[in-house]
Amino acid sequence: MGLDDRKLAVLRAIVEDYVSTQEPVGSKALVERHQLGVSPATVRNDMAVLEEEGYIRQPHTSAGRVPTDRGYRLFVDRLSRVKPLSPAERRAIERFLVGAVDLDDVVHRTVRLLAQLTRQVAVVQYPSLARSSVRHLELVPISTTRLMLVMIADTGRVEQRLVELPGPVPADDVTDLRRLVNEKLAGARLSDTPPLVQALVEEVPAELRPAMTTLSTVLLETLVERHEERIALAGTANLTRGGLLDFQGSLRPILEALEEEVVLLKLIGETEPSTTRVLIGDENEFDNLRAASVVSTGYGPGSTIVGGLGVLGPTRMDYPGNIATVRAVARYVGELLAQN
Amino acid sequence: MGLDDRKLAVLRAIVEDYVSTQEPVGSKALVERHQLGVSPATVRNDMAVLEEEGYIRQPHTSAGRVPTDRGYRLFVDRLSRVKPLSPAERRAIERFLVGAVDLDDVVHRTVRLLAQLTRQVAVVQYPSLARSSVRHLELVPISTTRLMLVMIADTGRVEQRLVELPGPVPADDVTDLRRLVNEKLAGARLSDTPPLVQALVEEVPAELRPAMTTLSTVLLETLVERHEERIALAGTANLTRGGLLDFQGSLRPILEALEEEVVLLKLIGETEPSTTRVLIGDENEFDNLRAASVVSTGYGPGSTIVGGLGVLGPTRMDYPGNIATVRAVARYVGELLAQN
DNA sequence: GACTGGCACTCGCTACAGTCGAGTGCCAGG
DNA sequence: CCTGGCACTCGACTGTAGCGAGTGCCAGTC
């Protein structure tokens, strides 16, 4: 069944009013606040249709209407335009991100910036190792039987692992190992390394074989197979705005979900094309988040994508504004990464 | 004014009951649940005195008594014995911490373990750089004018910074720089490095001077002066247990405080002797946390202390249990660090 | 056929009165 | 110094009533 333009305008008005007032909106208030050009009674008829179609609902019989998840979906897809950022916001983004000394620093600043601009919970995934290439591998002797393996990725990520060698390895051998490993692996995408590492173990001189074997095990198991993803989070205090009306009274499930890296990664770390993704309420696969919406997108230097970032908040959120902010921040971060 | 033994027993009973039931406790319930050997009326008289002295109070005129912050303080100082951990808890700690591959991993596991055992918010400070020594400094060329400086500390921490060189530096010079820097700084406490770095810049051959100068700036400014502290957090969902009765209805101030690293560091990152510290309610210097208590202690390999860890929860918490758990976990972590 | 004004109806919210009961403070007596 | 008894307080809960925002429906108008 088709909805004519006016019904769509009514839906849009309901969403906008509800988002800003947080109260069910009635037909009378609607015609007063928006130039719909019709009477409340007409609006009521339209509302009845919208309700029948599942776009809005009444919390109680004698209350105004509230958008459903489906209503928000329609609003996002067809009724809203991405708001351009205000100059103040643009300046804030630049000011915030300039002067980051370090990948950690970039991620940290980004996540706080996002939380501050959107007034929601912000989530930023560190550049994924799976999509990084090896820039350099460093072996630092800790003792004769211990090495610290430091991997520097082209995305700026640095990971380290302690390697317990099967026996003592002299300093010269460590130098050889370092050279060999770098010759073979530097520049390779992390996902392409397994066969290379395999080859390394086989080609290596006999006396280095045992050390190289344990080294390769650590490398493959802790860096490649379970590719270590990291996540930064900020703005959880924003969940308490709207005083428990959002999230039907309990922050518990939300806070629990936010503690699970796996969940967050699923939310914002998707591969997908570079479009912005919006998940509304029960579209979400996690029960804990059925009262929340997520706006996320990928970021990376140039047009490649190395990680995701986004915000999470009540379904009653300012979608156009948040979408715009998330996109803008992702773009700036991408530029920042491209410079390094 | 002195409190006799029975009054103290009454206070202890009130604290214990209130902590477990979360409801104001009355005189009748008290004599039923504890073997005090006296009648409710007597208990009432004792309560009146305790209230006058500020150890307990009545939420409403016709309600039972609730401990005040001062009452908890007395309880913690004089009325409670540290609970020995159950074997199950000991096993949990060992099981949880065995198999950590990495300092990050240790800290991560520790903070989750603490949150799980105490059912409170857990906070763990990474080993402080200020109390670490330099184990090794690595310089990785990124381009001819860029280096990645990687510092590995004896505590296992690894920090990296991008260094923009004033001009191109050939590979051999980087090797020289690396050697010089390590000869001078390896083994030094980070806090002792400034004069050493100063000397380095002066001693270095003229052609390396500019590079060494920028290098030393980065080193001193980002690693020594503003000593980068890091913090891990877990268990925020535990704040919602006790359904908003704790924290007088709003998690907001607590969540805000937990987002401020500075605040957390002040809470758990104190120098102090190796005793366990308990901050109760308004003893806390931050207004946001006046409804919360913190139990914290230092940890480190052997008897030295390299960082702090602890838990944060409502003033109505199981102090003896949490103190025991915090201590035990700190001890295990210390042992773990000593092994590396 | 679409829109509008009018009207009866629903139902959550608030205020108010009344009851109940847990808990207290006090006092006289052991 | 402790205890049992007793009057009192006051929050929690219940039921009732009135208010008002908002609705659905219908007959009338353009």
Automatic annotation (TrEMBL), chains A, B:
Domain HTH deoR-type span(s) in chain numbering: 18-62
Entry superkingdom: Bacteria
All residue ranges annotated as the Heat-inducible transcription repressor HrcA C-terminal domain in the record: 104-321
Alphabetized UniProt keyword annotations: Repressor, Stress response, Transcription, Transcription regulation
Membership in a protein family: Belongs to the HrcA family.
Stated role: Negative regulator of class I heat shock genes (grpE-dnaK-dnaJ and groELS operons). Prevents heat-shock induction of these operons.
Protein name: Heat-inducible transcription repressor HrcA
